[in-house]
From TrEMBL, chain A:
<dbReference type="GO" id="GO:0016491">
    <property type="term" value="F:oxidoreductase activity"/>
</dbReference>
<dbReference type="InterPro" id="IPR017896">
    <property type="entry name" value="4Fe4S_Fe-S-bd"/>
</dbReference>
<dbReference type="InterPro" id="IPR017900">
    <property type="entry name" value="4Fe4S_Fe_S_CS"/>
</dbReference>
<protein>
    <submittedName>
        <fullName>Cobalamin biosynthesis protein CobQ</fullName>
    </submittedName>
</protein>
<feature type="domain" description="4Fe-4S ferredoxin-type">
    <location>
        <begin position="61"/>
        <end position="91"/>
    </location>
</feature>
<dbReference type="InterPro" id="IPR002586">
    <property type="entry name" value="CobQ/CobB/MinD/ParA_Nub-bd_dom"/>
</dbReference>
<dbReference type="InterPro" id="IPR027417">
    <property type="entry name" value="P-loop_NTPase"/>
</dbReference>
<dbReference type="Pfam" id="PF00037">
    <property type="entry name" value="Fer4"/>
</dbReference>
<feature type="domain" description="4Fe-4S ferredoxin-type">
    <location>
        <begin position="93"/>
        <end position="121"/>
    </location>
</feature>
Automatic annotation (TrEMBL), chain B:
<dbReference type="InterPro" id="IPR027417">
    <property type="entry name" value="P-loop_NTPase"/>
</dbReference>
<dbReference type="InterPro" id="IPR017896">
    <property type="entry name" value="4Fe4S_Fe-S-bd"/>
</dbReference>
<dbReference type="Pfam" id="PF00037">
    <property type="entry name" value="Fer4"/>
</dbReference>
<dbReference type="InterPro" id="IPR017900">
    <property type="entry name" value="4Fe4S_Fe_S_CS"/>
</dbReference>
<dbReference type="GO" id="GO:0016491">
    <property type="term" value="F:oxidoreductase activity"/>
</dbReference>
<dbReference type="InterPro" id="IPR002586">
    <property type="entry name" value="CobQ/CobB/MinD/ParA_Nub-bd_dom"/>
</dbReference>
<dbReference type="Pfam" id="PF01656">
    <property type="entry name" value="CbiA"/>
</dbReference>
<feature type="domain" description="4Fe-4S ferredoxin-type">
    <location>
        <begin position="92"/>
        <end position="122"/>
    </location>
</feature>
<feature type="domain" description="4Fe-4S ferredoxin-type">
    <location>
        <begin position="62"/>
        <end position="91"/>
    </location>
</feature>
Length: 290, 296
């Protein structure tokens, strides 16, 4: 089983919902592994109040040229969709490492065996952190200055799949680009966290559209439900056949727990109930979890 | 001059503050505004834009397509796709998931049956231009759902903005950068003369803005910091300590103020909707410092 939590734009409270829901699910006895696939700005560890551990480099292929063998045919440069290889006037290829996505297309087309050698480049890290809540957190973190987050999303997701125990619980990046699709791919349930502001409503439609295109049953959680026009969110959810499963009021307690890195679901505040209720709904829909 | 406003992640109030700064600076300076958050553009909404004067489709993303008729189902493409974007459907056909494909063409190169896999250009989004009711032009983009290459959309937006600057004889380009640190942000910050970073006093936002700052350093641009929701976490000194260490001047601090979300719901800059609120006063001071220290 796999569940993804996403939201059209940043700042909707997606991570807060993800973290609290994961803790609540575990409290109810569900085994799970939590994957933070927001590789450009991974923050779930901060919200969980843990330090990232077990760092492992994510290396990516990059071509190295053996100029004694290269016949300067330019084929590698022509095939590179990232335009990461430039050629001199005489055809000598050069790599611009930042642009390379590691796809190996250049290596595949090079007609001279040994002209392109295996080079490796560090593009980020994965972390596997034991949390005090009884589940493991897998985090992907892209290096600053790297253009492409897709390879890191793929690496971090693989890592999470490899060590997973029970449910795979995924927090994605904001937006609806293809790295978000990659993160939510193969989910049994997508939980879209939204805000009833005009901006939130605009982005909600996009994430619902993505869920529909990917054929994943989608739920909507309305955060800061008392700020704005939540009826519009309900309307959109109906249009996409998605259920609105929870409404979270704007709450100073939630802001405080966010700031302090303590999941609110473990407190006695009334807001804790919302997340526990949501976790129960998730378990029901998944037939008691795994 | 080109100024980029960035935060490392959405949700810290970057666009609301940008909208207010644009509003406050519009009478003294001429500029074009660029909303470079192609995955969740909202500067237009915040400036009350309802209609666009000109729209251009951006064709440029590439995705692979498999011709099921000629495919011999050898599975080589499935094995070799670096991002795992090929799957086998219920009828046993090899199919590309266009919502995750990066368009690298590796599958096409390894497929033994010529012409079976083709890389096709598809629309990746739309770029549009309008003149806001405040008089300055705005360029904004929207990436299509599940498409790669949002950075290229941003690059094209900025090219359009540069052309407008020449045509209309504008002094500045003000770019509201995307969230994250990937290609969109690199495209947003690349070529800027100055970066203004916005963060809130939480460990998460500090971590995000530090990562954005590394991208800024990469371009060797001078940076400034604005602290939003400055009073939500009184014990937290992380932003100040970091800014001091790095020698990043703090342009100002904006208190948490409910008039900000309320102005968002009204789709107006907070300095226009609630000119006397605490947040508006703080933003006005920041605009003054930007005028003095950056725009001159
Ligand atoms: S690995 Fe791919 S992206 Fe990198 S240089 Fe080769 S073809 Fe270009
Ligand atoms: S394809 Fe191979 S031989 Fe041709 S230019 Fe590139 S490295 Fe050299
Ligand atoms: S173009 Fe690249 S990413 Fe897309 S399916 Fe082919 S190999 Fe995979
Ligand atoms: S490599 Fe070509 S022939 Fe083989 S499964 Fe893929 S599309 Fe079909």
């Amino acid at each position: 089983m796999q569940i993804a939590v996403s939201g059209g734009k940043g700042g909707t409270g997606k991570s807060t919902v993800a973290v609290n829901l994961a803790v609540a699910l575990k409290k109810l006895g569900t085994e799970l592994t939590f994957a933070d696939l927001d590789v450009e700005a991974p923050n779930d560890h901060l919200l969980l109040g843990v330090e990232l551990a077990n760092e492992e480099p994510v290396m990516q292929f990059m071509p190295r040229f053996d100029y004694s063998k290269c016949i300067k045919c330019r084929k590698c440069a022509e095939v590179c969709e990232e335009h990461a290889i430039i050629t001199m006037r005489d055809g000598t290829p050069f790599l611009m490492p930042n642009l390379c996505s590691g796809c190996r297309a250049c290596e595949i087309v090079c007609p001279v065996s040994g002209a392109i050698l295996e080079g490796q480049r560090l593009i980020g890290h994965t972390y596997v952190t034991k949390t005090p809540y009884g589940f493991t957190l897998v985090t992907g973190k892209l290096m600053e200055g790297e253009e492409r987050s897709m390879p890191l999303v793929v690496a971090a997701k693989k890592k999470a799949q490899a060590i997973r125990e029970g449910l795979l619980f995924i927090d994605t990046a904001a937006g609806t680009g293809n790295t978000v699709s990659k993160a939510i791919e193969f989910s049994d349930l997508l939980i879209a966290v939204t805000e009833p502001t005009p901006l939130g409503i605009h982005d909600t439609e996009l994430i619902l559209e993505l869920g529909k295109l990917m054929g994943i049953p989608t739920w909507v959680v309305i955060n800061r439900a008392d700020l704005g026009e939540k009826e519009k969110v309900h309307g959109l959810a109906r249009k996409y056949g998605a259920d609105v499963v929870a409404e979270i009021p704007y709450s100073e307690n939630i802001v405080r727990s966010y700031v302090e890195g303590k999941p609110i679901v473990l407190t006695g505040y009334p807001e804790a109930e919302i997340f526990t209720g949501l976790a129960k709904k998730v378990l029901e829909s998944l037939g008691g979890g795994e | 001059m080109q100024i980029a406003i960035a935060s490392g992640k959405g949700g810290v109030g970057k666009s609301t503050i940008t909208a207010s700064l644009l509003y406050l600076l519009k009478d003294r300076y001429s500029f074009v505004a660029v909303d470079a958050d192609a995955e969740a553009p909202n500067l237009g909404l915040l400036l009350g834009v309802t209609e666009w004067e000109e729209e251009r489709e951006h064709i440029g993303a590439k995705v692979a397509r498999i011709n099921t008729e000629s495919c011999v189902r050898c599975g080589i493409c499935y094995e070799r796709c670096p991002y795992g974007c090929i799957y086998i459907d219920d009828d046993g056909n090899y199919v590309v998931n266009e919502l995750t494909c990066e368009g690298c063409n590796v599958c096409g190169l390894v497929c033994p049956v010529a012409g079976t896999i083709n890389l096709e250009e598809v629309r990746s989004g739309i770029i549009r231009k309008t003149t806001t009711k405040y008089g300055f032009p705005l360029i904004s983009a929207q990436l299509d759902v599940g498409k790669p290459e949002s950075g290229k959309l941003v690059t094209e937006e900025k090219e359009w903005a540069s052309k407008l600057m020449k045509e209309l004889n504008l002094e500045h380009m003000i770019v509201d950068s995307a969230a994250g640190i990937g290609c969109q942000v690199i495209a947003s910050l690349g070529g800027a003369d100055v970066a203004i970073l916005i963060a809130e006093p939480t460990p998460a936002s500090l971590s995000d803005v530090q990562r954005a700052y590394k991208v800024v350093q990469h371009f060797r641009e001078p940076a400034y910091l604005i602290i939003n929701k400055a009073d939500i976490n009184p014990g937290f000194r992380g932003l100040h300590e970091w800014a001091e260490r790095e020698g990043i001047p703090i342009l100002g601090e904006i208190p948490y103020d409910r008039t900000i979300p309320e102005s968002m719901v009204m789709l107006r800059p907070v300095v226009e909707a609630f000119p006397n609120s605490r947040a508006s006063e703080a933003i006005r001071k920041i605009a003054e410092r930007i005028a003095e220290e950056i725009l001159g």
